[in-house]
Model the fold of this input.
Amino acid sequence: MSGSIPPVWDSIVGQKPVVEMLSRVSQTPKDIAQSWLICGPAGSGRSNVAKAFAMALNCPNHGDGTCETCRHIQAGTHPDVTVLNTDGVTITISQVRELMETAEQMPVTAPWRVIIIEDVDRMTERTTNVLLKDIEEPSAHTIWLLCAPSAQDVLPTIRSRTRIVTLAVPSLSSVAQFLLDTTPVDEHKARQYARLAQGHIGIARMYATNTEAVRMRNNLVDNLVSMRRTSEAVMLAEELYSSAQKQAQQDVDAQVEREQAEFRRANGLKPKDPIDARLRGQYNAIGKKDDVSRRVTRLTRDIIDRALTTIASVYRDITVIHNGAELVSGLINQEFSEEIAGLAVRVTNSQALQAVERVDVAKRRIQGNTPVVLALEALLTSLIF
Done:
């Protein structure tokens, strides 16, 4: 970053034009738009951009990253910055109405009350319409930051009432440099994980810090390139779903434990201290069965979506081979170059393109609440050419 850009933006990878614009706006907020739609593909960092913007707007130094305001916003504990990052499949009307009540309140300590809604595309049309009036006519000291994969993923009524910011897919080199700066990996591994993540910052970081995730990805590619029979496709679909469920359950259980530990710490309780009756309801709500179930369902779908992206990458590599573009575009799955070259002998370029389209269809079916196993079985059996 240049010297004129405050440090809070240093963690935003590969978005220089957007960072420069938002930094400039935050330093001269007299006529600032109060409703924003931050768009970018998975991994572009749209939620991180929204949070950095909130820090830049409310920090006395426009985002120094070290003051009490910045620290609290980063930790999610600032009273004037509210983030809705739903753990469910959709954002509910009750969640939105609660945000609207918050948006009406004057900020407590900061210049602006900032409301961030991650994945606003998860709203139904009815829920979006409830939010519409506040987006069109925000309270005088409130700024709405909505995040979505693209402007087309939200209703036209929202698009027309927000200032749209579009993020780019970060370059592999910028993601690799980010990993070198923030994780304990060498340059070779940083480049490898950036390539496998296809520019997705969060996934790249996960690969750099979780060897099991890399192993699971490699196992999927290995099974995919060796798949020959319908029975193998069905078995792979079931394995993908069961492993995704198991991983999601483990991750959510660990998250609940962390939240319970933080609750104890915030209330001055040691790990084995009894919970006071006045706090018991709040404490028990952290691990409420229905809430945990919703989180597991959401995370399972996210893991499956990541697996589908991996499957698409194999057939993308086949098109690269058929078009003789290895030197120009490179293979994503370089570790399986021989196996993918062998698969390219059986799969034509046209079939590989069809396979990528079928992955997109599977994603839409799952988003539309088709049973995940059935969607996976339909996809994988269609990939036996």
User: Anything to note?
Assistant: Residues 230-266 form the longest helix (37 residues). The chain has 17 helices and five strands. Strands lie at 35-39, 81-84, 113-117, 142-148, 163-166.
